[in-house]
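[Automated response] Your request has been received and processed.

Submitted sequence:
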Amino acid sequence: MTSSEGPSEPAPPTPPDPEHLSIGQLVSRLTEQAARLVRAEIDLAKAELQLRAQNAAIGIGMFVVAGVLSLYGLGWLLNSAALGLANVMPAWLAALIVGVVLLALTATLALLGKRALSRGMPPTPERATENVKLDIEAVKEGLRS
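Generated structure:
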């Protein structure tokens, strides 16, 4: 019996000893490894954000369903209030009172929401932007020295 072996693959070249590399080769290696590290970190961030987005989408969907059901429940409670008041006054007046109270509550919440929204505008991360600028300055200063 003869064995037929294919050509053997050469062993991968061993990297040269870092002590014997020139400064240019070291800088080239550093740049390559930094780029690889940045790409790996970006890929990790993408995967993490994708998972968080999926979880957020599920949570948002559940909140939407809960909101719709709460609107139906609110309608029934308002109807019950109007029917309760109709025992002591005409039904049209009871419905009018419940409607006016509901509109007053709506207007109050809208004004409070507008005030809160105007405090949050524009939605820019000012402190984070300033911190990034300071970080860049620190790196530039470290490279100069």
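Summary generated for your ticket: The chain has a mean pLDDT of 84. The two ends are 71 Å apart (CA to CA).
If you did not submit this request, please reply to this message.
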